[in-house]
Amino acid sequence: MANDSARVRRHDTVLIGAIGLVAACGLVYEYLLAHYAGRILGAVEPTVYAMIGLMIVAMGCGALAARWISSIYRGFAWLELGIGILGGTSILLLSGAVALAYSLPEWLRTVYNLDAAIVVDGGLAAMLLQSARVLPFVVGFIIGFLIGMEIPLIARVREHIHQRRLEHNLGAMYGADYIGAGIGAAIWVAICLRIPIIYAAVGTAAVNTLVGIAFLSIYRRQLRPSTRLWIGHGLLAGLLVVLAVFGTQWTTRLGDTLFQDRVVYRLQTPYQNAVITKRHVARGKPDVLSLYLNGRLQFASNDERIYHAYLTSPAMVATYRRERLLVLGGGDGLALRDLLRWNPDSVTLIDIDAEVVGLFSGKDPNAPAWLSQTLVELNEGAFADPRVVVVQADAFIEVERLAAEGETFDVVVVDLPDPGHPDLNRLYSDYFYARIGQLLSPDGVLALQSTSPFHAKSAFLSIGKTVSHVGFNTEQFHANVPSFGEWGWTIGTLRGKPASERIAGAEAGPTPDGWLDREQILAAFAFPNGYYADLDDVRINRLGSHVVYGYHQEALQEYRGVFFAGRSGNRPR
Question: Is 352 in the same domain as 416?
């Protein structure tokens, strides 16, 4: 009797432990697919929520369907094999689908020698692109469905071992499941976000494979004959080894097809995916380097000078003092470079991503030597200047800390990414701008990049209106940056004359960047007649409201970046 009790306890330990392990795997798969789908589809937050919600529904469907599996031992063994195969290959599968969808039009253009002006995005190309966008959710549903079957099957196996119905069986199962899911979440944050995503997929699938092999070994009597299962798990183990060795290389090459130019360096940080591409234009012309963060272009070396001139020069001309400057974002050092040309006493730069700053400081040990040298030359060694203080911190939190300590700056330049993610929305909020106002000296100036005034008009207007709402005398201006199209900025003062009047009264010589002068800056403040006609309908972006994020997503997804100028004689909409 004692031996039977000990045997049952050992089986309980094995089965409950298995639930904890597969629960951790399930949670990682949820985050893995949600994270990757968001990266390739662009709309990160909606995609993440949709994927997790879909997988939860699929798990419920799987739990209901598990009742139809009569062979519980064999069913669980095949289940782990299926999850391991699909989970381990999911990233490679999705990468291949996206690469095919995006590379096919270029292949057709080459084969048929089509003019560059001809858009190849209909028929088969459009179908493949739509399929690539839907595929992550199909894979997520299938994996979620299979995961949902695990707990009911293990619960039935446990009751079969005990030879009776267990009163607290489901409680024990779900307790192990919740604890395992918590461990999986911790593993995702602590490990998976810091390694290539294919390693996360392969490692998670390896755990499923080991659980399956252990289950085959312990319950071999109930699984006879099990030759196919052993062969399947053996082949899966071999496949995972191959993916571990070559998977990163394969997914990288597939991912490179999404960029028009040749990818020369990739950097995955805990905060973002950075890609640098290189394009050879013509003999005698420098190669063009472009930086992409999470798939979005941040600058191209051939025309970044224009963007950064408009970001920094108007504020530096408008301010009466230039001793202490603050840059929020700008980890590439290019805005920092332009500000240093005005000979300030000090410049503080706050950026959350130390690895990106290290790359543009020439201190990334993994970057090619030529690339490090080129990037440092591009920002003119700005990070090595003794007047520069770099703070690795979340700008939202650090600004509040500086304000609480009574720090003041003559100019604050905000060079943050577009509000394409809800986490960035708070950096465009009334609360954030109010804290920045506390940092400005009495005659100080705030300047911030404000997305496109034409391709994301409502977001642009909302940014300006939000800055005005917290007490700034606010104006907006725009210019054409060839790599971006028409781009916009916002400038604000707290006291005295608005920025444009200050600039009008300044000296007329060129600014230190050599690109702008007073007349060119003032011309940038002019917008078409009726451009601000709908300003009253645009909402302020209050903290937690996600207004600017919503406007930005609407412009890119619903309107596809199209600007509607309205008909002649009518009020523009």
Answer: yes
CB-based contacts of 286: which residues, under 8 Å, 6+ apart? 301, 302
- Residue 241 CA to residue 249 CA, distance in Å, equals 14
Count of Cβ atoms closer than 10 Å to residue 457 Cβ: 22
Tell me how far CA of residue 244 lies from CA of 128, 239, 247, in angstroms.
28, 9, 6
pTM: 0.76
Question: Alpha-carbon distance 476 to 489, whole Å?
Answer: 6
Residue 338 and residue 246 in one domain: no
Q: Which residues pair with 324 in a beta bridge?
A: 346
User: For residue 412, what are the β-bridge partners?
Assistant: 326, 446
Q: Are residues 281 and 309 in the same domain?
A: no
β strands within 179-280, DSSP E: 262-268, 273-279
Distances (CA, A) of 187 to 35, 209, 248, 506: 15, 18, 20, 57
* Residue that is written with structure tokens 């597969």 in the block: 22
E strand intervals along 198-308:
262-268, 273-279, 288-293, 296-300
Looking up tokens 């106002």 gives 437
The C-alpha atoms of residue 472 and residue 493 are separated, in whole angstroms, by 5
- Please work out, in degrees rounded to the nearest 5, the angle formed at the alpha carbon of residue 300 by the alpha carbons of 295 and 304: 125
Distance CA 268, CA 252 (A): 12
Is residue 113 packed enough to be buried (19+ CB in 10 Å), middle (13-18) or exposed (0-12)? exposed
SS3 334: helix
d(Cα 301, Cα 530) in Å, to the nearest integer?
34
Query: φ and ψ at 477, to 5 degrees?
Result: -145, 170
Say how far residue 367 (Cα) sits from the centre of its chain. 21
Distance CA 409, CA 421 (A): 28
Residue 551 resides in a domain = yes
Residues ≥6 apart with Cβ < 8 Å to 317: 502, 503, 506, 511, 518, 521
pLDDT > 70? residue 108: no
How many Cα atoms occupy the beta-carbon half-sphere of 361 within 13 Å? 17
Of 130-134, 156-160, 275-279, 372-376, where does the model show the most confidence?
Answer: 372-376
Share of the chain above pLDDT 90, in %: 64
Enzyme catalytic residues: 415
Q: Which domain holds residue 493?
A: 303-558
